[in-house]
Predict the 3D structure of the following.
Amino acid sequence: MQAAGPGNFSRRFPRILWTSGEEYAKVKKEVIPLNESNTALPLAEQLAAYGVFLPEKTGPVVLFLGAEPGRPARAACLRGDFTRVVGGLRLILSALEEQTARIACWEEDAELLRPLRRLLPRKGNLRFVTLHPELGEPETRCLARSLGRVMVLDPGLCRDAWRAIYEQERRTGRPFSVQSGKQSVLFDLPFGKSAQDALDQAGLRLEEGQLLVGGSLLTGEEVRDLSAPLPDTLDALFLLGRAQPDPRTRCIRCGTCMALCPEHLPVFALALGWSGDFSRCSACGACSYHCPQKLDLAGLLAGAREEAAV
Amino acid sequence: MSAPYVRTQRTTWTRNRDALIAMVPALLAGWYFHGLHAILLTACVFLGAAAGEAILSLLIRKRLSLGDLSFAVSALVLTLLTPPDTPLWLAALTGAAAAAVKLAFGGLGRNLVNPAVLAALPLHVLYLRSLAYQMPLSPLAFLTLQANSAVLGGSSLLLLALGWGFLLVRALGRPVLSLSWLGGAMVLSLALELLGLGLGGGAGAALLRPLLGGSLPLAALFCASDSVTTPVLKRSQLILGLFCGLVTALGRQLLTLDLSLLLVILANLLSRPLDRLFLRRR
């Protein structure tokens, strides 16, 4: 056993790299004493133990929790400045939509989850938890406005949540990946292997009209060369279904985007192919998340801002 | 900061479901006043719309979109706009026509005009009574749940208003457009009455007349609540609503014609240009 400490651990495992099988089990075993003996570690170090490194100035971290009968718990950690996270989050959430976890499945972890459960709505599914201990009030309000359910937890509760996920994983002994309809999200990438290997391992195939995105949906890039080794900076691969049809044909002009926009911008105009001044857009993603037709309004807005800048 | 913030995400499906719920009270009133034939009419319109959409989608090889309930919303609006003594076969045909109109525009979100209203117009021309102006039954009709008997959905003003209230609670609909349309029609009706150009009956009757004995409440409350074919900007809604209200009142008083359904189509066509105009000027 190495000297306990997340620093050592993260140096040896610079990313979330574990795969299924023996290697996965080995990593997990080493995580256990680390967590149990360092219950008072700060959040950043706890996350580092899982290969997630916060930037110098800690931005918000969004954690997906999930478990359902017969399936392993899922978790994904996104980082970066939250305005970018939110846009990507929406797409991941829609991918997760049908498989959203029920906190009830975690009955066995009642001990760990009691503090967490107190914060959750009594009914409905647990969508995600924000893990930013220093989130200010404006940000919290904006998040609450733009996302479905936001729980602001203190680091102590985060630790419990992490432990719960990882306990659940340990029981099932499988890495987490999420599939929903034509979309798949792989969170555990085989280290040093190619995208094709990752797809094979998950039993997926890149088909005609599908798109493979590495990184995150907003900040990531399309993975074109399936045979090249994946860079170790990648957190996740997104296998997306057919490209979205032209938003202009799908906008139902309900006006939700404008009503929920903090700046009250007429975002629907973009979806209809009209131009306008969108320089005040803060890229919070509220329009995208709440669009009943699930149009990529955040993407359209980003395009409009770029055009304006040129 | 420690309290969880809960907000649910809504989809096109939930929006359409809410729209359906909002129209159910008016439909039930129609069933109550017009009996079995009204129920059969409803079934025929729905079957016609579903079958029309399914068959036409197959023919033009478009993905079937019965799942988002938009066909049901169109069918229900159409049912409410159907004269109660329409033959069943014609009702089914009209339902299919509404689906055809919707698909001809390219499906949900691309309609320039409300497919249900466009499909209902021929019925109203065939059954001229509903386009021709009818004297309101009595000012008390508002309270006694009787309103226009020319169309199925006009059986109860109170229940129409109740359904529209539900739309507002669910943050659907276009309240500015609906209220300015109704308000415009009522105020002009009153003004014409006071100027001696009205149809008589006193100020109270003049105020209530636009609401009773025509399709205006249906048009202004429900047809104008369809988001696809109405303006998004409040300014456009206000202008369009006032314009439609004035024309409705003028049509009733001077031509004794109920123009509200035609005005829905006109408003549909004007909504995008108006929105665009105001967005350009910002």
